[in-house]
Amino acid sequence: MKQRAFFVLVCVLSLFLLFSGPLSAKEIKTLSQFPMSGPVGSLPEFGWGFIDGMNWVNNEGGGVNGKKIKWFLEDFRYDPTVEVATFNKYCAEHTPDEFLMATGYITGGLKPLIDKVNKEEKIPWLDGSYSTEIFGDDGGPSKYPYYYSLGATYGAQLKILLKWIKENDKGKGNPKVALVYSPTAWGRDGIPEAKAYAKKKGIDIVAEIEYPYSATSATSECMEIRKAKAQYVIYHGYSGASGCTAIFFKTAKQVLKDVQLTGTHYTTGRMPILVCQDAYDGYVGVATRPFVDAVPRAKTPMDNPMVKMAHEFAKKNRSSEYQKGIQEKDAIKDMFLYMEGLTYALMLQKVLTDADKAGDLSREGVKKALDKMVWDFNGMFGGKKFSYKSHTIPMLQIFKAKVNMVDVEGKKVPTGAVVPITDWINVDEVKW
Amino acid sequence: MLSIENLRVVYHDVISVLNGISLTLNEKEILIIIGANGAGKTTLLRSVAGMIDFYDGSIIDGDIKMNGASIKGLDATDIMKRFGLTYVIEDRPVFWYLTIEENLGAASFSRWDKQVKADIEGIYSLFPVLEKLRHRKAGYASGGEQQMLAIGMALMTRPKILLLDEPSLGLAPLITEELFSTIEGLNQSGITIVLVEQNAHAALDIGTRGYVMETGRIVLDGSSRELLENEDVREFYLGSGKRERKSYKDAKRYKRRKRWL
Amino acid sequence: MVDFTQALGAGTLVGLVYALLGLSIVIIYRASEAFNFAIGEFLVIGSFLFYIFFFDLRIPLLVALPLGLLAAGLVGALVERFAIKPLLGRSPLSMTIITLGLGFFLRGCVQLIFGSHSYSFFLELPDITQEFGDLLFLSDPIWAGILSLSTFGLILFLLFRTRWGLAIRATSENQAKAMAFGIDARFILLIVWAISSACIAVAGIMISNFGALSSMSSIVGLRAIPVVLIGGMDSIVGALVGGIIVGVCESLAGAYIEPMGLVGFKEVAPYLLLLIVLLIRPYGLFGQIRIERV
Ligand SMILES: Nc1ncnc2c1ncn2[C@@H]1O[C@H](COP(=O)(O)OP(=O)(O)O)[C@@H](O)[C@H]1O
Ligand SMILES: [Mg+2]
Fold this sequence. Notes:
The complex is a heterotrimer of chains A (about 425), B (about 260) and C (about 290).
Chain A: H1 2-25, E1 28-34, H2 44-58, E2 69-75, H3 80-93, E3 99-104, H4 107-110, H5 114-121, E4 125-127, H6 132-135, E5 147-149, H7 154-168, E6 176-181, H8 185-188, H9 191-201, E7 204-210, H10 219-227, E8 232-236, H11 243-255, E9 260-263, H12 270-276, E10 284-287, H13 305-317, H14 319-323, H15 335-357, H16 363-372, E11 374-375, E12 386-387, E13 395-408, E14 411-420, E15 425-426
Parallel strand pairs in A: 1-2, 1-3, 3-4, 4-5, 6-7, 6-8, 8-9, 9-10
Antiparallel strand pairs in A: 10-13, 11-12, 13-14, 13-15
Helix pairs in contact in A: 2-15, 7-9, 10-11, 13-15, 15-16
Chain B: E1 2-11, E2 15-25, E3 30-35, H1 41-49, E4 57-66, E5 69-70, H2 76-83, E6 85-88, H3 100-107, H4 116-126, H5 128-132, H6 143-156, E7 161-165, H7 173-188, E8 192-197, H8 200-206, E9 209-214, E10 217-223, H9 224-229, H10 231-238, H11 248-257
Parallel strand pairs in B: 3-8, 3-9, 6-7, 7-8
Antiparallel strand pairs in B: 1-2, 1-4, 4-5, 9-10
Helix pairs in contact in B: 3-6, 4-6
Chain C: H1 2-32, H2 39-56, H3 61-84, H4 92-114, E1 119-120, E2 130-132, E3 135-137, H5 139-161, H6 163-173, H7 175-180, H8 185-210, E4 212-213, H9 224-231, H10 236-257, H11 265-280
Helix pairs in contact in C: 1-5, 1-6, 1-8, 1-9, 1-10, 2-3, 2-4, 2-8, 3-8, 5-6, 5-8, 6-8, 9-10, 9-11, 10-11
Bound molecules: adenosine-5'-diphosphate and magnesium ion.
Adenosine-5'-diphosphate binds near residues 15, 37, 38 and 39 of chain B.
């Protein structure tokens, strides 16, 4: 009898161990990859913002309805192959019921993963890419059901600019626009859509110039634009911080005096104020995020809750990096990058929480939550809500750069910001 | 004034070229060094001039002394400045792409005195042909002119000791003769000379003493007269041995049998 | 015609900067037959040194420029001493390979010290923009042309009118011969690297002034490759002509060929031209005719 009781006990215990073990140990795992170092540039701010964000999410932020996210952060060094390899490694090492979401940053990493993510793993993938090819009309949810972008495509950005030009042009006849873009995948992205849209709207594309990153001079480009009598330039596909951008703006300031310079997301922000200085004054550009970092930083308008949150987080968690001068090592050079890292963290929390609430904390559940999501993103878009049905956060705003040169101890330094000149625009709702 | 003691030199740490050379150089003499191709004569001069490391060689044993003090390991420019030792490297060491006048100027780079201009004129009076060609690129001058220029350049360094490495190489006999009498003249003006030559006869004629080198060793030494009269020297270097060989083949066999040492 | 003159003029101005880059390659090549592939990093480092003097320490331009160039020269000398000198007498190929590795190493150093973001660069030189009718030549490129040409002239003067120049030319022809005649070939080589490095810095400062300065500016250094290959690796005149050719070629391609729909042609145009030149003259337009041994 005793023996039998013992046997039952052992059975019950082992059954309990067998089932309760994995049950209680089931974790919520995510993988995020950012270009934090590498040959192209070191942008540790992404990682910092993300780390601070995730730490907040798991503690004060309440996690996923109380459960903590086991998040992994990897630096892919601006190398798509690394991004792909790291993702593959995580897929092999973690089970699909735990590893629920991945985030990436560039189009170059998305392309080789199309089948792996959308057909094999079926894991929701959030990306920083604005690729029109993947998220635009020819791609999108029907083709790549598990890809989600955190911002409107370049095609949408260019079209919004063209629309703004058409609506604000005071001259007679069709407005004349020159397209200047980088000979890179992201520079060329969206250009065909923009050209087609210009045709439809009655805008003349009078010049189309590929201006390389390695340029030493923009004189012939600017002269060509002048000769073509363009009234607007759309400058697309460059980092606002790069030397060629400075060359272009400095030259354009002198050669293209009456031409309105405009541009896309990555040339709309803090770095061109610092690098191009007063040559950047008057520039009009679209961006997918609110302006977060004026020059000097203390002058940044804090009425946007997301901007405010980013600054508070940075001040609290990275006070020395936050206060350091732009040219010092390990400074937060551009709060946009920090806020972007934070944005990823909040997005992970939001969607995992939604899925959990719906009782389906799985990859499919996360996908459903994303597709159903209607959110104001902590008030990031002036209180406006967006839905994720296009798999991009479809929000854009148009800004105008205001740069003043002021004397500081006998040295002229730029101050300024880009200020919104339109309300937030939901490109999914625009009547093109 | 210069003495070399048991000098051993290797190239690239493995190719042993000088295997224990000892010799002395007396002030104001013309010392002749003869030896077959590859015997190590040039290597010896490079070592003395402090240039051996430049050719990836190193002194692994022995010493080189100037007036009793070791100069081993000194820089070429140091040796030149401190002891007035100038090494005219083999194969017409002139700068082909510089004019003759520029060549003379380049050779006076180590000097900072005001005499340079006057000295150049002095060289021109020693070798009038150089003056005529002064603005010509040295590469376009004839072999004899280049060799004269080389000696002129060496003189621009105001040498006390002159190391000449096969200056007669490729020159016509008449020009060689002229060259050697110039060398004799320089010696008479007080310059000590080390003359490495294949042209043993002409060299020994103007020399004071001589050494014979073979495969990195000194195999014979003596006054010029003694060497000129030595059977083996006559046979191997002067080409006029007593014994008549019937054929070249015979001569070779004989040579192989009768090795130095 | 106006377009042509415009393209020609603008191309020549930038070309003069390229010529200076070419010159700095040529003098090193002549001295040691090595190609300095670290030129881009030299350019960035030289510009940053000037940046420190002029923008950070706010020393007046006329003092900061010589100081910056001196510092750049010093870096060139240091690099020669620690990376190149140990290879003296070895094959030029090994030196060339060392410069490649050196490039990576220096790039790392620059990124570590200066990061990889852009530094604003405004020299604020007096405005000498020239405008005649439809022709427009901007102030900064004109200044760049003037300064590059003056530097070029200064180097020519140094090489052909001074005793140091003579020693450099002698050493460049043959280090062993030079050494035998009392020229300290090793020191001369050091000087050559210093001069080359200072020249690269001038070019770097001029180009940074067009836009901004960052560690990425190093790609500009690669322009020197078509310049010297077209002009001839060992020719100083070739560097000047090659520089102008590359500058004009880029600018003509930008003005005439790209608008025809061949976007991006500007980048490849110099290399196409290079190919043609090399087919006709394998040693470049001004590659020296070797004096054969008499
Ligand atoms: N730089 C060098 N590296 C390696 N071997 C060398 C070098 N220079 C000379 N040798 C070798 O050393 C030997 C002696 O050469 P060298 O001194 O030039 O003789 P010589 O001048 O008597 O003809 C030869 O076998 C030659 O091949
Ligand atoms: Mg020899």
